[in-house]
Design a protein that fits this description.
alpha+beta, two-stranded antiparallel sheet, two-stranded antiparallel ribbon, extended
Length: 130
């Protein structure tokens, strides 16, 4: 499988340097998680698209993104094999993700709470937040 670098060069994944391979793998894993989070948001019954036209636009956009998602999964699988082959698996261990900072909390009548989070640098939400 091929990998296109930031500067446009095309390499076989097997020819990537160790650090380049590990960094590309981490980046793709983050992108896969981001895709799944976006998909959850768009498929949400309240926050998702409303109306027939919005639904059609969403389906077309998600279809295009799904193709990219499948390509990313293929690259991650190939990189996984190469990382195992080079015995670099232990270098993949990442520390815990930092939690987003809370900007504000608003208590709603009837017991609901609205929390505004400060998310930056492609930081993803913890698993316990839906």
């Amino acid at each position: 499988m091929k990998w296109r670098t930031k500067d446009g060069r095309v390499l076989d994944i097997k020819d990537m340097g160790d650090e380049h391979l590990l960094n590309a793998h981490r980046m793709l894993r983050r992108k896969v998680v981001e895709y799944k989070e976006i998909e959850k948001m768009y498929l949400h019954p309240i926050f998702g698209p409303q109306g027939e036209m919005a639904q059609e636009c969403l389906e077309q956009g998600m279809e295009e993104k799904f193709e990219v998602y499948i390509q990313m999964l293929g690259a991650v699988g190939t990189m996984d094999k190469e990382i195992k082959k080079r015995d670099l698996t232990e270098k993949l261990v990442e520390g815990p993700k930092p939690l987003p900072k809370i900007k504000s909390v608003e208590h709603m009548p009837g017991g609901g709470i609205i929390v505004e989070l400060d998310i930056h640098n492609n930081q993803s939400l913890p698993d316990f937040i839906d």
